[in-house]
Specification:
about 150 residues, alpha/beta, CBS-domain, three-stranded mixed β-sheet, about 45% helix
């Protein structure tokens, strides 16, 4: 299965020039714990970093800093790991496990942001797969009962 088939297509994002307060308000408005930080290049959104609610707490709130005067670009994580929309689900899981990240921007072949995939998305997908597997035995039993009447 391709990761593009299970990712959230509308990744909440902001530009690096946004204030941390604006970013926090976006997170609250969209009920998310992270924002993909983008630069706009020729009308395309190119991911350049990620900002999490934890980044805000540890870098701003815990330090007593003013979230209105600090830009997202000052505290975002710039070691951005991303995945292609054509990547295999299992490869993406391994990539996230090795790097210890819970969310990945999903990009197309041009490097443009097309979505985000989270551990929650992957767990939901895998749970559905497990449910389908569990139905095999039930179906097999049902067929056997019909054949052996």
């Amino acid at each position: 299965m391709r990761i593009g088939g299970i990712s959230t297509l509308e990744a909440v994002h902001c530009k690096r020039e946004a204030s941390v307060l604006e970013a926090a308000l976006l997170m609250r408005q969209h009920h998310v714990g992270d924002l993909i930080v983008v630069d706009e290049v020729d009308g395309s959104l190119m991911p350049v970093g990620i900002l999490t609610d934890r980044d805000i707490v540890v870098s701003i709130t815990a330090e007593g800093l003013d979230s209105k005067s600090i830009e997202v670009g000052d505290i975002m994580s710039t070691e951005l790991l991303s995945t292609s929309e054509d990547a295999d689900v299992h490869e993406t899981i391994e990539q996230m496990r090795v790097k210890g990240v819970r969310r990945l921007p999903v990009i197309n072949s041009s490097g443009t942001l097309v979505g985000v995939v989270s551990v929650d998305d992957l767990m939901e997908f895998l749970a559905e797969e497990m449910t389908e597997l569990s139905r095999i035995s039930l179906r097999q039993q049902s067929i056997e009962k019909q054949v052996r009447k």
